[in-house]
Write a structure and sequence with these properties.
- The structure is a single chain.
- The chain is an alpha/beta fold.
- Helix content is 40%, strand content 29%.
- Helix 1 links the parallel strand 3 and strand 4.
- The longest helix has 17 residues.
- It is globular and about 55 Å long.
- The protein starts with 9 loop residues before the first strand and ends with a helix.
Length: 151
């Protein structure tokens, strides 16, 4: 199946990853107001803002993942709300020394795709075919797990 979603001047391939949002918590601090970081311009920030009143969170908006994780490590935040692959990758890269854990609920997911310039419909078909072959063979899952598993 080829999906052509026209958004500005781009086509998008069939979504290749469907990811959930999650909370990434540093459980070392306990406060009545929970300092939380989220990335600017993302649906994770929108989710954090929706949850802020319910969970008594104070949201700090940052521009990139490494800065968000640094805020946790320095105890300037108790949680990150971010996409699962980013969080799992961080835990995977830190290895056994990682003190960070995924806790809490998974929230609504969204699809990831690749933007392709208008006029490159043939490339969309090739990408979808290649991704389909990787999925069917199980290689996509192996690649995904090598980067985004929590272990």
């Amino acid at each position: 199946m080829i999906v052509y979603l026209t958004f500005y001047e781009y086509f998008y391939n069939t979504p290749y990853v469907n990811e959930k949002k999650l909370k990434y918590i540093n459980i070392s601090s306990q406060t009545s107001i929970i300092p939380v970081v989220a990335k600017q311009g993302t649906s994770s920030l929108e989710l954090a803002e929706e949850l802020a009143e319910t969970y008594n969170m104070e949201i700090t908006t940052l521009q990139d993942d490494p800065t968000m994780y640094m805020e946790l490590e320095k105890d300037n935040a108790d949680a990150v709300i971010n996409d699962y692959p980013s969080v799992a990758y961080k835990i995977n890269q830190d290895g056994e020394d990682s003190e960070l854990r995924i806790v809490g609920d998974m929230y609504p997911s969204e699809d990831y795709g690749i933007a392709i310039s208008r006029g490159s419909e043939g490339l969309v078909e090739k990408m979808n075919t290649g991704l389909g072959e990787l999925r069917d063979s199980g290689e996509f899952e192996e690649i995904y797990n090598s980067y985004f598993s929590e272990e």
